[in-house]
Amino acid sequence: MSTIIETKDLDLWYGNMQALKKINLSMEEKSITALIGPSGCGKSTFLRTLNRMNDLVPGVRIEGQVLYNGEDIFSPKVDVNGLRYEVGMVFQKPNPFMMSIYDNIAYGPRTHGIKSKVRLDEIVEKALVDASLFDEVKDRLRKSALGLSGGQQQRLCIARALAVQPKVLLMDEPTSALDPISTAKIEELAMSLSDRYTIIIVTHNMQQALRIAHRTAFFLLGEVIEYDTTEKIFSNPSDPRTEDYVTGRFG
Amino acid sequence: MRTRFDSELETLYVSMIKMGSLTEEALTVLQEALSGSGRDGLDGIMAKSHEIDEKEREIEALCLRLLLRRQPVARDLRTISSAMKMVSDIERIGDNAGDIAEIIPFISSGDLTVRIGLDRMIVTVIDMVTSAIDAFVHSDAEKAKGVIAEDDAADEAFVNAKQMVTEMIRTGDRNAEEAPDLLMIAKYLERMGDHAASLARWVLNALDVTGDWINNPVKVN
User: What is the pTM of this model?
Assistant: First the structure.
């Protein structure tokens, strides 16, 4: 397995508040990495840094490096939009566009300049199949995406991310607003996607990290306390703070 | 913040101590009989053994409930899974105590059991069992390692007993007919020692002395 994303001494400040402190993590290609830790520990900030979503936050200052395939994503020659196609994002609350299911998915490819109806049909179908949603929506592709259930909307958002052929999917608590069945579907989906995509997921559900992630990083107060195989983190963590967190002694 | 879970774990520890002390009571009765101090109480051992069985079921149910409801990880998972294995070993020790109690009435006198060293052997076994449970409750790895080392003494005592029993038969000792029963008792005691050592190994797994208990557990037997 080779490293696809690597951070080196990554520091991030919101104004005077340091949210990330010297983060050194490397994520393996085609695997699932879970980021866990109490609220406000910096895991979502870290996730958003990986595709430069934090650029949009006023007063943010970043030092250190984020290497994507060996290249610093903060280098002036990096095309941020291009980066975000390759490193896609799925949010906590499903956020389909107010348009049809089909158009939600075709949106990205269209902005890429793809106009052929046949080609778009292929892309939409493939993305929906990959997101395990096709069978449920194939008869209503032209209907509004807002008519879907929460779980279906979240899979639609994943399909939308997949349609632009990303390499990495960032997921920020993608199941926290979903019922258990929808959650199980997203987890299944994440696991089946992980043989083609790299997935980095922030989760407050430790059982979820246990079920799906190959590796887990434990964040606390802006630092990575421990990063190891998920099995190690949840069976015999090296740091007592990790132990105390995963066993529910604080957080 | 997790007071209820901690108090449930406390209940688990208390139940383990209770099960251990029931076993110790049974073993103490055997110790008296094997050292020739008296055979009162042998009848009570069977009842004790049933109580131990009952405790095993109770602790298993508690552990299963904790696994289901708390979905424990890390130290909690190691503690609970080890406890589930340990109660089987304690239960076997209780069974063996019952087996020995059934044989003792066929032994003509306490002098015989003392002669082949069974009185000292059971002292070793009692110490191993109580130390193993103590090590679990107090997270004491050194004590658990001590129990595993002590198993050599129990094994040696068995080899000695076997030689002496063989000698009784070979020389046509007037108690030679009792030799097989004496050997059985020695074997049961030796098995108890093995179970106690197994208890200690589960303690070491609960404490994760290898640092990788899932893939590299302390080998049990």
Answer: 0.87
Contacts of A207 in chain B (CB under 8 A): 71
Question: Cα separation of B29 and A204, whole Å?
Answer: 54
Are residues B86 and B202 in contact, defined by beta-carbon separation less than 8 angstroms? Answer: yes
A248 and B CB contact within 8 Å: yes
Determine the distance in angstroms separating the CA of A177 from the nearest CA of chain B, rounded to an integer: 22
ipTM (interface predicted TM) = 0.79
B194's enclosing H/E stretch is: helix B179-206
Whether residue B146 lies inside any domain: the answer is: yes
Tell whether the model's pLDDT for residue A95 goes beyond 70. yes
**Cβ–Cβ under 8 Å, residues A23 and A7:** yes
B55 lies in some domain: yes
Q: Which CATH number belongs to the domain containing residue B73 in this structure? A: 1.20.58.220
Interchain pair A236, B78: CB under 8 A: yes
Residue of chain B minimizing CA distance to A251: B1
Q: Which residues of A touch B207 (CB under 8 A)?
A: none
Confidence tier at B2 by pLDDT (50, 70, 90)? confident
Q: Sketch the domain layout of chain A as residue ranges.
A: 3-91+158-246
Look at residue B38 and tell me if it is in a domain: yes
pLDDT-derived band at B221, boundaries 50, 70, 90: low
Is A234's Cβ below 8 Å from some Cβ in B? yes
B182 φ, ψ (degrees, to nearest 5):
-60, -40
Domains: count for chain B: 1
Q: Which two tokens stand for residue A72?
A: 């610093």
- Per residue in B26-65, pLDDT (tens digit) is 999 999 999 999 999 999 999 999 999 999 999 999 999 9
Residue B155 in any domain: the answer is yes
Instruction: Identify the CATH class of A3-91+158-246.
Output: alpha beta
